Amino acid sequence: MTKMQTQAVYEQRLCAFVDILGFRDLVQRSLRSLDPLLRQKQIHQLLQEVVLARPVWDRDSPVGVIEDRLRKQGVADPKAEAERLVNEYAAAERGSNFSDSLVLSATLSDRAITGLVTSLLVLSRGLARLGKYARGAVCLGPLCHEQDLCFGPVLIAAYDMEKRAVFYPRIVFTPEAHAAVAKVQSPSGGPLAPYLREDADGQRFLDFLSQVAPDLADTFGAGEMEEIRCELLRQLSSSQTSNLVRPKLVWLARYFNSVLEVAPIAGINPLPFGT
Known about the structure:
The chain folds into 2 domains: 11-203, 2-Layer Sandwich (Alpha-Beta Plaits); 221-275, no CATH class. By secondary structure, it is α+β, with helices and mostly antiparallel strands. 46% of the residues lie in helices and 17% in strands. It contains 10 helices and 8 strands. Strands 1, 2, 3, 4, 5, 6, 7 and 8 form an 8-stranded mixed beta sheet that branches. The chain has helices at 23-29, 36-52, 56-59, 63-72, 78-92, 110-129, 153-164, 175-182, 222-237, 246-262, and strands at residues 11-21, 93-98, 101-106, 133-145, 150-151, 171-173, 196-198, 204-206.
């Protein structure tokens, strides 16, 4: 039996642990539903959003696209340089998922941190349009995150924080993680700080509905906000909403309305809700 080669594996990384709220209940009810196939399709659609939030390097290697671009730029060995860049980017931005849980991590380069924040935006927005919501925590600390391995003290910290300290459907940042993200300028030139917002309880969270921050992900505007509003209104009005879930929906409604206060959107009204 040969021994595995080992090396120092921990490095300082941002680490995000994110769950889909209500996923466990959705799965448990999937076989008891009047339409089990529909429920299973909903579960599959939700998990597709999780997969899409992983860095592109983890999902589909874009070596060919980068190689073509480098060839047009006159690079001597475009294939070798493209492979080098993809390996470099893949090591800087990692993603792993199990069921509805997603772990994202990034080195402390501006590009990698921008990639992590973009992935969190894609996930939060995609789920909200389906009437489901992300909850998570982002911490900074020692982590090993390779293609098939992910472990380290900061992963435990992010997991514990998400499970014990984050009640509302939001992705919160520790002070250290917030400081690391707030100073970043994305490769396109826009700052990431506008995506970080302080809540009433002092927690810093991802302002994923922001209409004033630079657009890092896909186009997100009036149409997407109306979809999210309709889902929230349906859930707030439902007699089946439990007492445990309702405070989370009320928090979301208040957050949604506060976004409209900062940047009103023609044709979209604030959400009505009780306390």
